[in-house]
Amino acid sequence: MAEKIIRTIGVLTSGGDAPGMNAAIRAVVRTALGKGLKVRGIRRGYSGLLNEEIIDLSARDVSDTIQRGGTILQTARCEEMRTVEGQQKAAAICKKYGIDGLVVIGGDGSFKGAQKLSDYGVNTIGLPGTIDLDIACTEYTIGFDTAVNTAMEAIDKVRDTSTSHERCSIIEVMGRDAGYLALWCGIANGAERILLPEEHDYDEAKIVEDIKENRKRGKKHYIIINAEGIGDSMNMAKRIEEETGMETRATVLGHMQRGGSPTAKDRVYASIMGALAVELLMQGKTNRVVGYRHGEYIDFDIDEALAMQKGIPQFQYDIARQLAL
Ligand code: ADP
Ligand code: F6P
Q: Which of 96, 238, 262, 281 has its CB 3.0 to 4.6 Å from that of 20, i.e. a possible disulfide?
């Protein structure tokens, strides 16, 4: 099949927002304009595409955005896009607006939508945008670095009061079903215990025993980082307090982890990935996702990327346990 010549590129953000998405949008817009292409921004993810919320984007429209959290295009989750009818309609709308290449910034779910649009003739490139780091083909996702730093700073503050009151503190971090945010916070905040969905055996008796031992060793607090995939932090706090006699409080950090100005890493990686997405589209590529592995930016077939799996490195988890002595 002859390679399609791309004249107009669309860009959308989908799924949970992540700091750095604006840097990626800005890079897509300015790279494409610099190469003489037209750029259209699609508001509110696939939902906005299906509602034809499509605007022209100029270089000035993305001025003053690189430092801003969230996404200037807004984001959404869209059930209709999961249906064949929705996917065909979305592809037809892309054609109506002359969008022959589309950059989708989001997670695995968003890439499935991009995969379908590619099947229906719209060239698509996915950029990994999620604070969860749960995309198997890449060691980096846009937003994780900012989110982990935001959570780390919040946990430092909880730690101060936990130490002063000599309490056990359970702090729940986001991450959907993945424990990467929890693992990183656990190591960065020097937590006594990290509960990861990938590892947790739900045997609280072991935690209770460890808290008692910890007190004997003279420690003034006991910080537990609990991953969202396990949840139940409030009830867990009650049970632990009853079993140990140590005052226990739970804090769920919630959506504050998703907001805020992106770190330098998120701004730079997202900018490079945004520019690469345009290059790939101009080379006639479709159904690809950009990732970062072993120090290099690379792209994968979306079908292959979605079939990949990654897990928490056991040695990192073991090191975290060892450092909690
Ligand atoms: P993420 O992209 O962060 O994984 P979601 O899983 O919520 O977030 O997916 C975002 C959106 O991608 C969904 O609301 C839906 O519109 C689209 N999507 C998810 N799964 C599919 C699918 N199997 N086919 C087509 N579109 C999908
Ligand atoms: O995927 C990002 C994320 O923040 C997850 O960590 C969390 O499970 C989910 O989104 C929360 O989504 P919502 O915005 O619907 O509360």
A: 262
CA 176 to ligand 2 centroid distance, Å: 6
Per-residue model confidence as pLDDT tens digits over 46-56: 999 999 999 99
Which atom of ligand 2 sits closest to the CA of residue 181? 6
Per residue in 137-168, pLDDT tens? 999 999 999 999 999 999 999 999 999 999 99
Whether residue 82 has its Cβ less than 6 Å from ligand 1: yes
Other Cβ atoms less than 10 A from the Cβ of 205: the count is 8
Distance CA 264, CA 40 (A): 26
All residues at 6 or more sequence positions from 145 whose CB lies less than 8 Å from its CB, including other chains: 20, 262, 263, 265, 266
Q: Give the strand pairing for 54-56 and 296-301.
A: unpaired
Closest CA to 109 of 14, 19, 202, 34: 14
Q: Pull the structure tokens for residue 10.
A: 């669309």
Q: Which of the ligands is closest to the CA of residue 49?
A: 1
* Atom number in ligand 2 closest to CA 107: 1
**Whole-structure pTM value:** 0.97
